[in-house]
Amino acid sequence: MSVKLTTRQIGEVTVIDAAGRITLGEGASAFREAIRDIAAKGSAKVLLNLSEITYIDSSGIGELVSGFTTVRNQGGVLKLVGLTKRVQDLLQITKLYTVFDVYDDEATAIRSFT
Amino acid sequence: MSQSNDGEIQRVDRLLDSTLENVDLAEADVTRIAESAGFDEEDLHRIGIAVRESMVNAVVHGNHYSTKKKVHFSVSHSVEQADAGQPKDRLAVVIEDEGEGFHKTEVPDPLAEENLLRHSGRGLLLIEAFMDRFTIEPRIPQGTKVTLVKYKARS
Q: Which CATH number fits domain B3-153: 3.30.1490.270, 3.30.470.20, 3.30.565.10, 3.40.50.970?
C-alpha cells in the first residue's frame, strides 16, 4: 500500500490526513505533490495528520522536511499531529523534533495556529 | 572472549536488478527470516527500515538504477555461542552494489544544526540507530559492501 492523502478545511487551517506508507517512490512523490498543490493555493496554515501512517523511511522524512520548508517559504506554517511512537522515534533520532511543532490531538493543534 | 558460529539456520542469497521493487523484495526476505528467528514486532520494523535504507543506497546511489549493475544481497540467521555467555540469535544482512564506491565522510552530518532542513541524507543515521552493528567497506573489484547485524537473546 502506498500513501493515501485527503484534505479538509477547518477554518483557515488545511488539514492533510495521510494514511499508509511514505517511502521512496510512489508514496513520497504523492506526498510531495499534495504539499505543493496546497502551497500553490496559498494555504498558510497546514496541519499534517500522521496518525494513520504505518511506515516512513528516510525519504519520507525528507518529504516532511521539504513540505515544511515549502510552506514556510511561502510565509506559512506546517505542523504535525497524531504521531505514532514509531514516527516519534524517527523524529527524535533525526533531531527533527526540534524543527517541527508536534501535537497529540487535533483540537489543540488547530488552536495553536491562532 | 572467543566466539564460534554454531551454524546457519536459514539463509537467502540473491543477485538483484537495481530497482525499487527489489528493495521491497529484500526487505520482505529479511523480515520473514527475522520473524522466524523470533525478533519482536518493533525489531522487525526497525530491521526492515535499516535494510530498506541500505538497499535504496545500493540501487539509487551506488548503481544509479543501472540495468547493467546488480545488487548482491544475502541474509542469514545463525546462532552465535559466546564462551562465557548465553547463545544469541544473529541476523546478518550483506548488501553490495557495483557502483563507484563510497565513503561515509561524503555524507554531511544530518544532526548538525545547519543540515537539519536538508531533504536527504538521513539513511545511514537510521541504519546505525536500528542495527547493533553496521559496517561499510569497499567491494572488490568495484562498489560498496555494507553489513548489518542484529542480535537477540536466544529463547
A: 3.30.565.10
